[in-house]
Amino acid sequence: MAAxxxxxxxxxxxxxxxxxxxxxxRKLARQFHPDANPGDPVAEDRFxxxxxxxxxxxxxxxxxxxxxxxxxxxxxxxxxxxxxxGQPGGWQRIDLEDxxxxxxxxxxxxxxxxxxxxxxxxxxxxxxxxxxxxPDRHVTVGVSFPVAARGGxxxxxxxLEAECPECKGSGAEPGTSAEPCPQCSGTGQxxxxxxxxSVQRPCPRCYGRGVLIKNPCRECGGDGSVTRRRRxxxxxxxxxxxxxxxxxxxxxxxxxxxxxxxxxxxxxxIKPDRFFRRDGLDIHCTVPISAVQAMLGTRIRVRTVHDKxxxxxxxAGTQGGTRFKLKGQGITKSGKTGDQFVEIxxxxxxxxxxxxxxxxxxLGQRSSFKE
Length: 371
Ligand SMILES: [Zn+2]
Ligand SMILES: [Zn+2]
Fold this sequence. Notes:
The chain is an alpha+beta fold.
C-alpha cells in the first residue's frame, strides 16, 4: 500500500471542501469496499488507502497537520491514525450497508462513529491492535515436606484478576457501550509532530485503549476486571526442590482486549519438618527409644513421607546413634528411589522412684553393666 498523497487517494484537489471530500470518499468506499470485491487484494488495498486518507482529511485538525507536513516535506509514513503501517483498526468490519444511510448524517463525528461502529460494537472496545497477553503472575506457595517428597496434588487459593462477569471485560455498564475515543478516532494512538517528524504516542485521553467509557461498569468501576479468589489445583512433582518454580500456562492475569491470559509461576517453598530431613533422594529421621527397649530389643513404627508407617525391628543391644535403613522409602525421582534412614537415640528416665533406683543399683552390680 503506497498511499503517499491522501488528496490523490481520494481524487480531490488540495483545496477541496469538506463536502467534496466526503462525497469523493463515499463514492470510492462503495466502489472498493471488500464486500463488493470479495477476494480482490488490489481493491482491498485501495479501500485501506482511501479509508486512511479520509480519516485524516475529514478531520479539520488532522487535515491541518497533514497539510503542514506536506508543505514541509516530511515523510508521510506513520501519519495519523489510518496511515500506511498504522493501525488496522475497525474499518475492516464496516458493512456495506453502513454507507447507505450516510446521506442523512450531519457531522463528521457521526461518520466516524459509523466507520468505527464495528469496533465499538464488539464486546472488547479497543482496536484489535490493542490486544495484549495478560501479565504473568508470580506466587510463593508453601508445600509440606511429605508432599514435596512424594509429590501429589495441592489446592492453592489465589487472588486472581478475572474478566468482569458483568461487563464481560469491556468496562462499560451493561446495556451501554464504550465509544471510540474522538481524540484518536479509536486507534489508541495519536501522532505528534516533533522537529518535523511524526511520532506515535498512546492517546492521553483514552490511555491508549481507543475507547472512552461514559458509564463505567458498577461491578469493576470500568477496569473490565475483578479480583477473585480462585482455587487452582497444582500437581507437585515428587522430589521438588525448595525454590523450584512451577509454571501454569494461561493461569496468570487475563489478557487485554481479548488477548491470551498470562502464565502463573508458583515458587515452591518447602515447609521445614520436625521429623524429616532430606539429603538428595534420601530421607533422614531420628527416633528415640528407651534404654530398656535398646537392651531388650523392640519393634517400632516409623513414619515415612509416603503417608504410612513402616515397622522396624530394633535388635537387642542396639547402641545410640545406630542407623537403620528403610529401603525404598525415600524420594522417587528420574527413575531412582532413595531410602529412609532411621537414627536411634536412647533416652533414660530423668527421675526414678526409690524402688526403680534400687533395681537399677542392683543391676549395676552385675558384671555386664560394670564397663
Ligand atoms: Zn465490569
Ligand atoms: Zn484516544
